[in-house]
# Entry
Amino acid sequence: MKKISVRRLAAKAEKLPIYIIFAVLCFAVIYPVLLMVQLSLQDRIELSKTFSPINSLTGFSKPDQIPLFPTLKNYRTLMFYTPEFYTVFWNSLKNVTVILACQLLVAAPSAWAFARYRFKGHKQLFNVYVIFMLMPFQVTMLSQYLLLDTLKLMDTSMALILPAVFSTFPVFIMYRSFTGIPEEVLNSARIDGAGEWQIFFRIGIPMGSPGILAAMTLGFLDLWNMVEQPLAFIKDKKLFPLSIFLPMLGNGSEGMVLAASAVTLMPAAFVFIIGQDKLEAGIIASAIKE
Amino acid sequence: MRAAENTAAADIQNSAAAVGNIKEMKKNKKKKKNKTDLKFLQFLLPGALGVAVFILIPFIDSFRRSFCTNITQEFSGADNYKEIFGNEAFRLAIKNTLRFTGVCLPLLIGISFIIAYMLSGLKRIQLIRSILLFPMAIPTATMVLIWKILFSDHGYINGILDSHGADTIGFLDDKAFWVLVGSYIWKNLGYTVLLWLTGIMSISSALCEAAKTDGAGEVKCLFYIIMPNLKPTLYTITIISFLNSFKVFREAYLLAGSYPHESIYLLQHLFNNWFVNMDLGKMAAASVCVFSVIFIAVSLLKAVWDKEEN
Amino acid sequence: MNTKRIAAAAAAVLMAISAAGCSSSENKSKQLSSKPQKGRYVEEILDLKNIEFPSEFVKADGEISFVNEEDAIKRYVSDGKNVTSEELDLKFPNDSCFATKIQQLPDGRGAVLYTDQSVLSFDTEDIEGNGITQETDTDDSAPEILVDIPEDDTEADPAITEKEGGIIGETEFETEDPADAAEETAEDGVIHISDDYDSGSRFVLIRPDGSFAETEIEEKNIFDFEISEDGRLFVSTFSGRIYKVDLDTGKSELFYEGKEDQANYIDIAGKYIIIPEQLENKVTVIDAETAEEIGNLEALNDFCKDNITFNSAFSGVPCFDFCEGEDGTIYIACTAGIYRYVIGGNKVEQLIDGSSTSLSMTDSVYMGPSSVVYEGNDSFLVECAAGIVRYRFDPDAEENETSCIKIYALKNDEKITTAVNTFRRTHPEIGVELETGMKDKKTYDDAVKDLLSEIVSDDAPDVIILDGLDIHNFIDKDLLKDLTEYLPDITPEEGLIEGAALWNDRDGVYSAAGCFAIPSVACNTGDLDKLDTLKDVAEYSEKQKDDNNYAMNLETSFTGSFIKNLLQTYGNEISDGKNSADPEKIKDFFENCGKIYNASFSGEDPMENEYEEQDEPFYTGTPLAYLTLDNYHLSAGMLDSYPNSINCITTIKDYNDKIDYRYGGSSSVHAFQPIMNAAICSRSDNTDEAKEFIKIMLSKDNQDNYVDNALPVNKASFEYNFTDRTDLFVSGCIGYGTEDESEILYKYTDEAEEKELMEYLSKLDTAVLFDEQTTQKIVECGTKYLNGDSTLDEAAEEVRSFLLLRNKE
# Structure
């Protein structure tokens, strides 16, 4: 006969209020997202309950919390009747993947250099990197514009890709996990005759993978929503990314904006779902090491 | 006697060999040191070059512009700096930005820490973590749309208030500051919690258990073991949250345009408007000032952190 | 983990879909892009005199022909280079016939839709004037009821206007039993009820000798027809059906059922018949052989939604046209330009940009191109407001250009396009690029940032149209060139209305205005002295409302334009001397607007007004024209054209001496609004060419185009309106008096009136001009106040803090 320990039950009951708090918290956090998704399934007439008070400034917005007449019409209009959508979606995807891949190639070695090699001035240089990361875009907007113009990169995808590839943000994130690798591991590899690059690839990258993944994940989210750079540097509509397509849809097509938002959301959500597990694994692994 | 002689000779031989070895070791060390001195370059160079071209050069150009007149680019000394320090809008923007950072950073860090600590004691938190992370994935334009639905003068929340006979609240007017703070926390909570969790979980549970057997309570464990070990995490979180606090400009701009309510008129609004008005000199001078301030702040932070580490 | 796999799979699917969707559209466009990269389309307006209303082009046997529908005596044939004409000898049954549409093939066969006025049984003008609508549910859209209007104009019994199946609006005349009323011929004011109603519309075939032959179409009332290149005739009727008619025998067969009772224009483009549906705002395409509907037209429909309009002032005539292209493509001509589309494809590609050519010109008759035909060899013929225009692709066009200028405007406008076209015609060797800042819903901020970036990066525009921009800031930042030294050169020999054109004279002349508008106010005779400021107007309107229930009409019935109109008319009171507003004066301004608004609507909910929100105010005459129409006693607004505004109020004053008007809202200030302010950018490399542009903009050749719809600054062009203009479309009756309901006939201005106007113009001293940001903010907050969404204090405070903040920066 299995005896259910009273203590265990009590312990679980103790945790109950905490679970309730979290349930409320999570609901509050996820409510706007749910609102958006279920609004995107409403047709124009139902949506007017939500939007016409705001647009015409009379009455109050009363969004239906659940679509009474759910329809996929907004998605259909978006997917099949809006050829621009594919172009902007593909632009975003293309830009972000290229940038992330190049960031990996450029930022990971840089972070490794800062983390493992105590060269002269590395602290100051790293500080400078951090500060560059923190500067808001408006500060160097005009100068960047002029630079890109001189390099004849204006109005091309490269105008978005190149400056982003060399962003110092991923360097910062990856740095932390690279510093966590014990030096002995590297030294023993060196004694075994491994070259620096081999050490980097065989030891550094696997052991620093939480940081790398974190940088990629955060980087993806940031780049997926990049707004100021395309507005300033891109004039050709064919090169617009998804992030500025959304604000350009005006009043009257809110249904499509919502559907487009939901679709924009999906890749980011995928990145989470896929990246989270690896992150967790990395955390566990590093915890065990200790 | 021969054996002793032999051992002595052997000793001398050994020590000679030892000295030789030491010498070699020293030589090797020197060699290694020289090699490592330059090894970092091959890792750093490509990134650094790119940074120099795409980030440093524009900044140097801005720096140069701060000493010149607007369009004609004649040298004008410290005129631009004098102008911005006397500029009321600049002061307002700085005040608001500092206020915003000063309010939302501690709030975010504190709330997320509490949540992370609570979560660390639970099992099967993956769902909660994922949900908290979700807001980060939402594009800004969508968020603004939702905020408009909820918070506008004719929005959902005001509708509920009105139907219960209460006064409507001008969320997007005088309370805009708090809407922005709330939006910031909502968006960044998930990742900050995750970072705290990463930090907390990487602290070996053995430490805490050992302390507990010594008779320390939960609270002591928290204050004396966990918190001190989280300093690096705190540093990272502070920097990232600081970075994200600048990004809130996007929401403010999409919600309220380039001249919002005074309480949310941030530095970037000013930059944006200076640009529109072609006040390039002022923009450049202000960027240099912002850079300096951030430089000092980050250096201080790093110095404090480094000292703690030692 | 399952979720992970699902997520990864879904991500892969999404990527695949997007890549597929994108690449397929790219492929399609690659297939189409036979357009060479170099060169551009060159416009040539054909010099064909006396063609007022050309018919649609008919293409056959390598020839393109059209007929002048106005007199139908000449037929024109183009072979791609020259246009020859030949006499037409159409044998109309009598002299009171006029053709609505004629198409004739080179061999002489054709068809004509005409109206025989001699058999008309009611006066069409009566129908328009009394607002009588026709609605039947029988096959023939003819009304079933005749109402005889007796000559002594006694009251009618409205009940008899209804009969089952047919309703004719409301008349105000009594009559006897309608069933006894006999069919009679047209007389002024007579509406006949009969079962054999005849609208006079006839559709017949044309034989090569000019004689007519009857057709055997079942339905009598033909709406539109079109002859294809291979000689097939398609006819669309009021019931929505399309019949195929044999050109020789006249035999017809039902070809396409269509939507019930929806009359549509039809267009033949190669092997497709294109039916634009105005009500549904979409386009249906059917196969010209099988009448099958073609699907997959989302891209075309999307395009049409935004770019296709019908001329509602002209019984819904289309302001666009389709024609056949090469390889199954069709071409679409509209004000936005000429486009190419592959049926079933998903991209509509632009070949010629309308905004920098005559395609975007409109006038009272043509609101867009009415016909287009592809001549082959990358050449198009288009009928539009500019006349008959040929667009031929010239690969060397750009090489022939010795230089190029760039013109920047915040918002594009027909006046600018007209000036660009005049410039192009005069200087074909100078290329012109017209850049619109705020197109595609771009905000003011982004547009100005773009402009600034261009200026700083050596890509500066040469000419900047300053309307909406922060002009004084531009001058402060040395962005505009002083035009003083050019003045002798750019001033036309006819002279300028200098107060209006060269107003921008802050220690140097920085811009020249191409047109202008002047404010005016009108009220009961004798009260004009009381109206000097907006406050006076507000108080007067309140008093009038108390006395007379209605006080004011500003001819716009919705709040957005209300504020804007008052902002323009009395803007001098809140201006800060530059192009912004004084923060402290906003509250009073809003308060006065509120009083006038309340007086105008006497408590009615303006949202119930049937007019839809439009960008431009809804004009039928001028604000002051309503004075006599509806018992209003006060009106204020901008006069921005001679025939439509200025001359209307002079006419009304002559008609009714109870009303008096004054130029200028206030008697002490001679305010005006300069429009189309052209300036030269100081960072431009092509100052000589830019100067040429301004010179041509001010020249009589260009300014003559503005005489109908704007007030030109060129003296000679302006004074053209002093002559008795028999060419005016608006001449005739401009309204009806409220008291005696007699017609108000348009009267040309006499010398005294002209002198009065010129005196005002000679003393212009205050330019009223606000930048786009200020205007938007004031209109937005003012509208909120008028709608009741904010209190006066809140609205004023919002504008005030915006202005103060902006000043602080």
